Amino acid sequence: MATVHGSSERTPDPAPEQRPAPHPVDHLPPLTKLLAGGFQHLAASYAGVVAPPLVVGAAIGLSPTEITFLVGAALFTAGIATLLQTIGFWKVGARLPFVNGVSFAGVPPMLAVVGAQADPRDALPVIYGAVMVAGALGFLLAPYFCRLVRFFPPLVSGTVITLIGLSLLPVAFKWIQDGGDRPASPTGLGLAGATLVIVLLLRRLLRGFLQQIAILLGLVAGTLIAVPAGAVDLDPAAHAHLVGFPVPFHFGAPHFAVSAIVSMCVLMLVCMTESTADMLALGEIVGRAADEEVIARGLRADTLGTAVGPFFNGFANSAFAQNIGLVALTRVRSRFVVAACGLMFLLLGLSPAFASLIAVVPRPVLGGAGIVLFGTVAASGVGVLVKAGLDKGDNLLIAAVSLGVGLIPVVSGSFYDDAAVPETLKIVLDSGVSAGCLTAVVLNLAFNHLGARRSVRGD
């Protein structure tokens, strides 16, 4: 039977309903859900973004207007870093629902730079020069640093995820204390308790989209309750400018000092370690494993955002663990929701007046919601540890010691202050996540790998 050339049948394209649905991480929600979800991430991370510039600005002795400018710059650069992480380009960006912002781990070395200057106002150019070099170095190291993922089995990653949550819970407690070390006031306890109860009720009673934004609704309700209690301060919003751009090198051209560069490079390695742990944690939660390639792209976004930040008067950026809890709680895994948050950061950085509106949310209200967010992260880590098999071999011992070492700076922030510990090592030890992570990696190698090889030889 002759074959008729040119008349071969083409396989029809699959019907739209037969095409595979995109992964939830790559799903683009409707505009309403996109904006509401993005604003919820903004509310959860705003305090973390603005805290470092407030602390550093006060230590330098900047005027309220200059501190406001520094805060706007932090918001603007957090927006850039978040968009790099969620949307990305080329081999930059993990394409996961990550918020990136100013790393609070950078505050101690930055304050050390401030103390080393004859005139504290000379500190910012030195800080910016060191941050630029550290970010560039981290960008070059990213494709090599990501290979450490092989040392993060579920036992290690579960320990680190648990530590992330436990390390963040004291932040919520300080918010309830209104940011200080004094005992919580009855008003603060009441606002935090009311916000916590409202969030829990909303999660229990609502369904669908409203349930997903229960944290945001709880923050709004808590703030409204705080108005008659006199706990809402509107002065920052009243005196803020409507429009303001973070002019490049507003505080002077960067100055490159060797000692500051060394400290910031050590900090960059610490931030990269924490970001690796955060990516592993988020990969578990969203159901898209963070392999070496994903981690390399994510670290490039972190470090590129850090290197670019000083041009716009920003500091070192890293992934924000508190938003992992929000993703776990709401189950909204779309990276575009967090990209919307990044765009909002950019806009807030261009409008101090709107940025100050977010600041009117009382800290005790944030603390009540923070208990839910940060506790969710810790509970997720416990779930990973259970899957890792704590009943096998010495896994329970490894997790116990690592958690203990990681909680030292969380429980006692001044634990290493008077010890004969080099400053560069202290940067690592003062980060509970980094200290616990390194402990878990070393113990896992010692008990589950090196020991196993010895027993084989002995047989």
From TrEMBL:
Record's GO cellular component terms: plasma membrane
Topological category with respect to the lipid bilayer: Multi-pass membrane protein
Annotated region (Disordered), positions in chain: 1-27
Transmembrane segments: 42-61, 67-84, 96-114, 126-146, 155-176, 188-206, 213-232, 252-272, 336-359, 365-384, 396-415, 427-447
InterPro entries documented for this protein: NCS2, UacT-like, Xan_ur_permease
Localization of this protein: Cell membrane
Residue spans of biased composition, Pro residues class: 13-23
Alphabetized UniProt keyword annotations: Cell membrane, Membrane, Transmembrane, Transmembrane helix, Transport
GO MF, any single term: xanthine transmembrane transporter activity
Entry's family note: Belongs to the nucleobase:cation symporter-2 (NCS2) (TC 2.A.40) family.
Name recorded for this polypeptide: Uracil permease
Taxonomy of the source species: Bacteria, Bacillati, Actinomycetota, Actinomycetes, Kitasatosporales
